[in-house]
Design goal:
The chain is an alpha+beta fold and 141 residues long. It is 16% helix and 49% strand. Strands 2-3-8-4-7-6 form a six-stranded mixed beta barrel. A hairpin with a 2-residue loop joins strand 6 and strand 7. 27% of the residues are buried. This is Clan AA aspartic protease. InterPro entries: Peptidase_aspartic_dom_sf. It holds the Pfam family Asp_protease_2.
Length: 141
């Protein structure tokens, strides 16, 4: 099993808590995503998905539990997600509208996010978060 080390960015939410961000590459471009151990699964921004995937499946039922809420979702398959040296192929995702989250991040001077990495990916790759070193350790076969 090989260890993949990915740097993390800790952002302060106006002294009301913190979020960990991790940089990923999706659709050939770098994006930040929130690392959310409380999210049942990973989700991506609806606009990002609509702009990059032509075949989409719409649903009115929310199928992801995260720190962000939504009333409708889109299902799609992302061909490739790269997180450090980890490559995830054909990831079945749910897309949410993260516009209000990104507006709040922008007002606080933080980068916009393309999604949320949740427990599905974190569990599969046996994630270990080291806050002191601001590193995410993933394990891949």
């Amino acid at each position: 099993m090989r260890t993949i080390t990915v740097p993390l960015t800790l952002i302060n939410l106006q002294d009301d808590g913190f979020h960990l961000l991790v940089e990923i590459v999706v659709f050939g471009k770098k994006h930040f995503v929130v690392l959310d151990t409380g999210a049942s699964r990973s989700v991506f921004d609806m606009t990002l998905i609509k702009n990059n995937i032509s075949e989409l499946e719409y649903s009115e039922e929310t199928q992801a539990t995260t720190l962000f809420t939504t009333s409708s979702t889109i299902q799609a398959i992302i061909p490739k997600i790269k997180m450090g040296r980890l490559i995830i192929s054909s990831y079945e995702t749910v897309a949410l509208d993260l516009e209000s989250v990104n507006q709040a991040y922008d007002q606080m001077g933080h980068p916009v996010i393309a999604g949320i990495i949740g427990s599905d990916i974190l569990l599969k790759y046996q994630a270990i978060i080291n806050y002191k070193k601001l590193k995410l350790f993933l394990y891949s076969e």
